[in-house]
Amino acid sequence: MNPIEATNRNFHVAAQLLDLDEHNVRQLLTPHREIKVECSITLDDGTLATFVGYRIQHDQSRGPMKGGIRFHHEVDHDEVGALAALMTWKTAVVNLPYGGAKGGIGCNPSGMTEAELQRLTRVFVQKMHDLVGTYTDIPAPDMGTNARVMGWFVDEYAKFHGWSPGVVTGKPIELGGSLGRDSATGRGLLYGAECLFESDGRDVKDFTYAIQGFGNVGSWAARLFHERGGRIVAVSDVGGAIRNPAGLDVPALVDYVAVKGGVKGFPGGESFPRDQLLFQECDVLIPAALGGVIHADNAAEIRARYILEAANNPVEPDADAILSKRGVTVLPDIYANAGGVTVSYFEWVQNLQHYKWEEERVHTELRHRMRSAWNDLQATRTRYGCSLRTAAFALAVSRVDRATRLRGL
Ligand code: GLU
Fold it and tell me: Which of 95, 238, 281, 342 has the highest CB neighbour number within 10 Å of its CB?
């Protein structure tokens, strides 16, 4: 399913519940601005290569637009557009004073050298620096990008506008990054899961977990759920998958991946085909990789009773209906993975204040934000008698709609 179609289906369910009129619906769906740029660089072997970059700025009624920049070979206009809209709803669910945007470059970062990636990042900034800014649109890391890339971004931006650390978040600590940003998405997922399980009278340590993806989000989730007593029974990444029904030794696995570059061959577990990760025996499934992985054709095979959406858009709307009939509870992405953008907000606040927070404060305030958003989510779910996904969209859309109307035409 086209990613914009999937995101908009969820939006329309909420819009109907809220009884929004057609004009407001159109205004909320139409992106504020779409930027498409050609990025040509010289590769290390002296040849020229051209990549297409996007920044789609979806909505700014609640504040400056916010969202990551993705480097991935599947990046295209529709994916970036859908992810930009999701950022608008995500920042609204956790009540950050932001709108939503997303960017990306269609490239394969693992096949490029660091020097090539640096040149590509700098050309991208050169092409769109006038359209982002501390009070307009603030990029951040996403799939295929990291603090290193954000460091190049802030440096290139400074050449045009002077030193402006608040123009981008997820920076290296030495360049104004925040303590706790690296682990924030995984940690926010843990805090959100604690709320969900508590509402069912259960605890993180009561369950077994399977995690698809062992990048920043998946590996931090594995570490933090393991620390809280959860049993991680299976993980996969692009190179392979391993499982151990008795529970994987996560710290040993993290050390192994740091050396070997992937989970494949980890001696503390048994290898299995990576496309079988979603169907492993477990209580909680954490998709922490690409979008669209759970769809109408495979939803019936999922054995977990909870799905925590660490990735953006991992469950398609048709699959949602099948899962809900089977009694599987889905913690929706726009709440579940909002820890990253929440700590990005803390980083931005620290940049504006020129004042550094202790790491403990970052964790405490993140937990507080996730708990308070959960209370709002629960109240919305009870009010409309709907799924958590619909409640999250209804909460977000009502907040953005109200801000849009208060600003006037
Ligand atoms: N890329 C992350 C997301 O999808 C973080 C965005 C941000 O920090 O602005 O939520």
Answer: 342
